[in-house]
Automatic annotation (TrEMBL):
This is YggT family protein. Belongs to the YggT family. InterPro entries: CCB3/YggT. Keywords: Membrane, Transmembrane, Transmembrane helix. The chain crosses the membrane at residues 12-29, 54-75. It comes from Rossellomorea vietnamensis. One of its GO terms (cellular component) is membrane. It comes from the Bacteria.
Length: 86
């Protein structure tokens, strides 16, 4: 059971890294049109889209990824706490 929680924890951690890379790619022109950018878009956009609908932008700045990272952090903490019980 501990192995399952460890795998889930690591998957959420790696997904956080993928989100960071995907968000940083928006700072560089045409970076999201590369193969890696398209791959990251297919795995990151479905997660970010609900947050974009809920959290309004501040001018040209999209702050929804901050909320998405907070939710991922809570998920990691929850997985860690559950692993301590089992």
């Amino acid at each position: 059971m501990e192995f399952i929680f460890l795998v889930l924890y690591k998957l959420v951690e790696y997904y956080s890294y993928a989100l960071i890379i995907y968000i940083l790619m928006s700072w560089f022109p045409n970076a999201r049109e590369t193969g890696i950018g398209k791959f990251l878009a297919t795995i990151c956009e479905p997660y970010l889209e609900p947050f974009r609908k809920i959290v309004p932008s501040i001018g040209m700045i999209d702050i929804s990824p901050i909320v998405a990272f907070l939710v991922l952090g809570m998920a990691r903490t929850g997985i860690w706490q559950l692993s301590m019980w089992f």
